[in-house]
Amino acid sequence: MKFKFESLLALCATLLISTHAFGFEGLGRVATPDEVKAWDIDVRPDFVGLPKGSGSVTKGMQVWESQCASCHGVFGESNEAFTPIVGGTTAEDIKKGRVQSLIDGSSPQRTTLMKVPTLSTLWDYINRAMPWTAPKSLSTEEVYAVTAYILNMGGIVGDDFVLSDQNMAQTQARLPNRNGMQTNHGMWLASGKPDVKAPRCMSNCKPDAKVISFLPDYARDAHGNLKDQNRLVGPIRGVLTVAQANEKSAGLKMSKHSGESLFSANGCVACHGMDSKKLGPSVVAVANKYADKTDAKAYLAGKIKAGSSGVWGDMPMPAQSHLSEEDLNALSDWFLSKKK
């Protein structure tokens, strides 16, 4: 929601007066109108804050192929790291404004166009955060154009469509899940009812689920590599069984996941190619640099856990502090095994 910046400026002035009273004279200053304007870029669901402009599907396709497809796929189907943007909606969904597969659970993967109920959300996110490597670098025309192209790939608008500030509301009225969000609940309105109810079961309760069987290690690769038998659409991928079998036969300490499966599951493939540089160095380059060091495994595990910047360039690597020590060691071992 957009702030009332007049109130915000008044608050800043009050704070300045307060700091002066407590002996902090000269600390801070009131933001200039231009500074406030640069910060005030959000777009509300009622399109307040939307800048004037337009962009065509044709222009959007050009921008998409040059700046978006590498992460989100040529047709919005995504790659190994990101979930799909397009897919899972039907012409009937566009007509009704409610995605049927979200109701009956028939789709194994939720896409952006299946979920988003307001077009401003899509426009605003692209404007503020995309492309990932250079946020806020797209022009207003390019943001309109990319948004139009995404809608075109989802069958919501035609090939010759031009999205603008003048037709955003009419276009939003065609979103497949525009009726999928309601605001009459406690998270939106203080007077609304809670959107979740969890009464404790006191009688005839279902018993807790218990795992009574599992696939033993020796049988994991009985039918080949399960990962190769699944489509690479979003995060829905099979378990990488062959790598785990190889690690075990080589006498390596097994983690819950193999190094290669951790590499894919945690989005490392978005920045690191196997033999070629992407945003970060290739796996082979990392292995060649560190494999002969006595503390290589611990060093890499520490860098992966804490994040790093400045070693291979200006692009920082985000911390992977959620990984266990066992998984960090497995990922480090896998990196170092790729030395050439």
Could you please describe the fold and organization of this structure?
39% of the residues lie in helices and 2% in strands. The longest helix has 17 residues, at 5-21. It has helices at 5-21, 33-39, 57-67, 69-72, 91-96, 100-104, 112-115, 119-129, 140-153, 168-172, 241-249, 259-265, 283-290, 296-306, 325-336; strands spanning 54-56, 162-164. The chain folds into three domains: 5-39, no CATH class; 54-172, Cytochrome Bc1 Complex, Chain D, domain 2; 217-336, Cytochrome c-like domain (Cytochrome Bc1 Complex, Chain D, domain 2, Orthogonal Bundle). The protein is built from 15 helices and two strands. Strands 1-2 form a two-stranded antiparallel ribbon. With 340 residues, the protein is an all-alpha fold. Residues 1-5, 232-237 and 247-255 have low confidence and may be disordered. Helix 8 (119-129) packs across helix 9 (140-153) and helix 14 crosses helix 15 (325-336).
